[in-house]
């Protein structure tokens, strides 16, 4: 999805469409890593977040060349999830996978936006919680939607990639990885 490190340079990104990308456009950006390769500060944050989430535990680790952070699969939740942590151990976001049908039921207006951009067929959708305050208790889709530091990230089957927040601010990444949904 859109590089998290570019968030502070949002205006520049919108004006120039540029963020430093170390991976080739259209290619996979995540490099699988063994847990032993992950800095202890990052692993400690992942353990702490999993404790907040209850029965959760970490799974596969990856280094994201595009955003410059660590990603780990979060296991034990009711839905597919991924945690992103910066190299210094700072929490970046928790992404929770949702189906288009779930979005349509809880947020029909948002579903219509996704339909207009992607035709909804094959869209990969994640609720991105970008504040630890949203984790304990873990916010559900509809109550989360009105909060700050919450966006829906959706990638169309065509590879078009968007972020949308409750204020209807939408960003489109020019390119992103086209690997199969996680």
Q: How would you describe this structure to a colleague?
A:
24% of the residues lie in helices and 29% in strands. It is α+β, with helices and mostly antiparallel strands. The protein has a 9-stranded antiparallel beta sheet.
Features:
5 helices, single chain, globular, disordered N terminus, 2 domains, 9 strands, nine-stranded antiparallel sheet, alpha+beta, 182 residues
Short description:
With 182 residues, the chain is α+β, with helices and mostly antiparallel strands. 24% of the residues lie in helices and 29% in strands. Mean pLDDT is 83; it is low at 1-27 and 175-182.
Write the layout of secondary structure elements.
Blueprint (H helix, E strand, L loop, with lengths): L9 H7 L13 E4 L6 H13 L4 E8 L4 E7 L5 E6 L4 E8 L1 H7 L1 H11 L5 E6 L11 H5 L4 E6 L5 E4 L5 E4 L9
Antiparallel strand pairs: 1-2, 2-3, 3-4, 4-5, 5-6, 6-7, 7-8, 8-9
Helix pairs in contact: 3-4
Average pLDDT reading: 83
Main β-sheet, in a few words? Answer: 9 strands, antiparallel
Overall structural class, as computed from helix and strand content, comes to: alpha+beta
| Strand fraction | 25-35%
Count up the helices.
5
Q: From N to C, what is the helix and strand string?
A: HEHEEEEHHEHEEE
Query: How widely separated are the two ends?
Result: 12 Å
**How many DSSP E strands?**
9
Number of domains: 2
Report the C-alpha radius of gyration, rounded. 16 Å
> What is the spatial order of strands in the main beta sheet?
1-2-3-4-5-6-7-8-9
Question: So what's the overall shape?
Answer: globular
Flag low-confidence runs: 1-27, 175-182
- Helical content band: 10-25%
């Amino acid at each position: 999805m859109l590089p998290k490190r570019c968030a502070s340079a949002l205006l520049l990104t919108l004006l120039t469409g540029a963020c430093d990308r170390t991976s080739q456009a259209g290619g996979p950006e995540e490099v699988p890593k063994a847990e032993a390769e992950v800095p202890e500060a990052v692993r400690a944050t992942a353990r702490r977040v999993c404790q907040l989430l209850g029965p959760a535990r970490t799974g596969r680790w990856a280094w994201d060349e595009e955003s410059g952070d660590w990603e780990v699969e979060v296991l034990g939740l009711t839905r597919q999830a991924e945690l992103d942590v910066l190299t210094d151990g700072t929490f970046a976001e928790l992404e929770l996978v949702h189906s288009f049908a779930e979005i349509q039921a809880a947020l029909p207006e948002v579903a219509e936006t996704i339909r207009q951009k992607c035709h909804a067929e094959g869209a990969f959708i994640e609720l991105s919680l970008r504040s630890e305050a949203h984790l304990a208790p873990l916010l559900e889709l509809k109550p989360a939607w009105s909060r700050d530091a919450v966006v829906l990230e959706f990638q169309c089957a065509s590879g078009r990639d968007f972020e949308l927040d409750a204020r209807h601010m939408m960003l489109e990444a020019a390119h992103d990885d086209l690997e199969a949904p996680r």
